[in-house]
Design goal:
Helices cover 9% and strands 44% of the residues. A hairpin with a 2-residue loop joins strand 16 and strand 17. The two termini are 53 Å apart. The strands form four sheets. Strands 1, 20, 21, 23, 27, 29, 30, 31 and 33 form a nine-stranded antiparallel β-sheet that branches. Strands 3, 4, 6, 12, 13, 14, 16, 17 and 19 form a nine-stranded antiparallel β-sheet that branches. The protein contains four helices and 33 strands.
Length: 509
Amino acid sequence: MKRNCNTTTNSTRVTLLGCVLLGLLLAAALTISGNSEALAAEGPATKTENFDKDPKWDAHNNRAKDPKPMKVVQNFGYSNTARAGGKKGEIGGYLTPAAEPAHYGKVLPNFTLDDTLSASGKLKFDKGGGHVLLGFFNDNTANEWRTANTIALRFGGEGDVFNGYVEYATGLWRAGSTLFTTDNPAPGDPRMLFQFPAGDITHTWSLKYDPKGNNGGGTLTATIDDQMVTADLRPGHKADGATFNRFGLLNMMRHADPRAGSIWIDDLRINEKDESFDRDPKWDGFQNRRTYTTTYVRPRFDFGHSKTHFAGGAAPGEMGGLVFRGDQQTPELMAYYGDRLEDLTLDKPLRASGKVALQQAVTDSMGLIGFFHSTKSMKTGSAQVSIAPENFLGIAVEGPSDEGFYVYPYYGSSRPDQPPHTSHAQQGVRQHIFPDGKSHDWTLEYVPADADGMARITVTLDGQPYSVALPAEDKAAGARFNRFGIITTHVDGNGMKMYFDDLSYTFRQ
């Protein structure tokens, strides 16, 4: 007798059970097939990484051992000496450039960019080195250079001489500066520094901020002896706002530098009021009397998996740390940390997303996250051809000092002579990110052809998009990627501390 799945006799119960199981398997197969087609329709396959534990990603030089840790000495504040003036009692001492902040200042009521500010006095800069800021600042935001909420004179020691600058930074880390230059600079060098004699020579100085100058935009005027410079706040910077609650000395907050030195200040007058140093004025000091060892030495890379929780992920554990700009002339001066991917190209879409926090960022620093190649992107050469690594597509955290820090699309094709294109066929507005440690959501999307047929990279920060199109020649040259993560640039510079979490990224096209 012919049997089928509609047969219900007792003698065919086993067969019926087999038919039911067969049906379930067929349905499951159809479901899997349908899901696969749906995934294919949605685009590239993605991976997620929450860094709850060390993912053991591929790494190169990301936990560098050189340069060696450096001893840092900060020893400044009130001194019962008379190096800068006639009578005993002054402020000053030994300051070392370092990423860790150190300052000593008179507590002030909160002043802003709408207030007139002034200071003057005498100074002596010892022979040797040193990089020091003297001026109005905010102790709550003294964390890097350029230093937010500052109006200051900056001095840099060069053996028997020192250089001078006047500079400012708003509450949004947008900055400007002017240096003291010679009256008759050398041919072809219109910005040659004026060099003031260091050693047993006392100089007079002054610093003034006029909120009504520059047609209400704000102007700084500074003098050292008979030399004077002025600096107008750049358009829009006054509207950023700034708050100053201290006047005094700060170290250069960049990275540890052995070129430390001493400065002495006396006969000080702040906002038309004389300051007496006949006795200790008990000004506010922060880490100004200490000796310690730091690993924040340029370019000692220190990034990768971290048990910290800065970026704002669901749980502790993230990726990031101290990232210096690299140098393609030397393999030891380049680094990366990235997950292994299948071979990806520019022929199909690429996507990534996650959270980011910028903890500290120094002028002339730059951080990259995105798709790159473990060997092609680490190619060395006899010259620094391009900041962008070859075969890179992702996000840059960087910006000119007058604009603070941006998050924007960045790439390098396989053409070795190709400069990075960040302004070709723009759409949207580049978004600022501040080195204040706050968490932000970001996305990265690459499409081989947009509505106009152009290859385009789009980055969003907290939902706000900015995109650039790849020139046809770069798209045609192509690029290959087999890693996703952090990679250093190919032109060296300063460092930043950035962290990423809850990452999602294309691993197969």
